[in-house]
């Protein structure tokens, strides 16, 4: 099914009370997504697992949105591949195209465009963390719905982050960051605090981008072993769990 395509040049004032929970996602083509998971997976398996991650993350967000002032979006790339998302997302999701070159530029542009669409706040969420607790998303929405300016940040255990939430398109968190390194979170926190913007930190979680973190996901979903850095229960991620069961069987 086709989804609504949002146009940042057309502001909808009725969205002002909503926080957009926007997943940053590439269209799921084999060889273009989750390539660091091959090996141990094939490129086709990596792309199939990416689809599971999208299904689980957007299902989690949709459940949160039903009970909070939030709405689910996909900030996607490349333009022209919109049809590859057909049938993968909850029916009330919308799409907004990414623009820009570098990763930081794309993040800032996504925040700018989604806020221009009329939303009162936006959370940019990675597509590699299918078990983020729903409570983390709820906390982000609640913090951004409070009066006053602030930025919400959810750290990943590899030194990056799985979520950044803003009420205004502050450039500071996206400039002069050494992306794809273990210092991204620390550099982002430093940039926010140096700019004098209030920071709210969410629970620590993890993303799945290599064989080691795939094993962490496998332990969590098949072995019911929570990540070692938290006692907080993660989202059940039924699509990813089913994929791992088919791939590895019921044993850990």
From TrEMBL:
<dbReference type="InterPro" id="IPR018641">
    <property type="entry name" value="Trfase_1_rSAM/seldom-assoc"/>
</dbReference>
<dbReference type="Pfam" id="PF09837">
    <property type="entry name" value="DUF2064"/>
</dbReference>
<dbReference type="InterPro" id="IPR029044">
    <property type="entry name" value="Nucleotide-diphossugar_trans"/>
</dbReference>
<protein>
    <recommendedName>
        <fullName>Glycosyltransferase</fullName>
    </recommendedName>
</protein>
């Amino acid at each position: 099914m086709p989804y609504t395509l949002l146009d940042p040049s057309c502001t909808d004032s009725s969205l002002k009370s909503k926080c957009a929970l926007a997943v940053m996602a590439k269209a799921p083509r084999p060889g273009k997504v989750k390539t660091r998971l091959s090996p141990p997976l094939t490129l086709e398996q990596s792309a199939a697992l990416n689809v599971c991650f999208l299904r689980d993350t957007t299902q989690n967000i949709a459940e949160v949105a039903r009970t909070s002032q939030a709405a689910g979006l996909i900030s996607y790339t490349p333009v022209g591949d919109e049809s590859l998302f057909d049938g993968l997302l909850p029916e009330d999701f919308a799409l907004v195209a990414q623009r820009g070159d570098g990763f930081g530029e794309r993040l800032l542009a996504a925040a700018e465009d989604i806020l221009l669409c009329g939303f009162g706040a936006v959370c940019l969420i990675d597509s590699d963390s299918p078990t983020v607790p729903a409570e983390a998303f709820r906390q982000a929405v609640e913090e951004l719905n409070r009066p006053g300016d602030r930025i919400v940040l959810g750290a990943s255990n590899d030194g990056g982050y799985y979520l950044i939430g803003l009420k205004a398109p502050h450039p500071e968190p996206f400039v002069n960051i050494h992306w794809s390194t273990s210092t991204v979170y620390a550099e982002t926190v430093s940039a926010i605090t140096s700019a004098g913007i209030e920071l709210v930190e969410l629970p620590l979680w993890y993303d799945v981008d290599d064989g080691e973190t795939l094993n962490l996901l496998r332990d969590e979903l098949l072995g019911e072993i929570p990540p070692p850095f938290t006692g907080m229960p993660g989202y059940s991620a039924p699509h990813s769990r089913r994929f791992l069961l088919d791939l590895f069987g019921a044993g850990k």
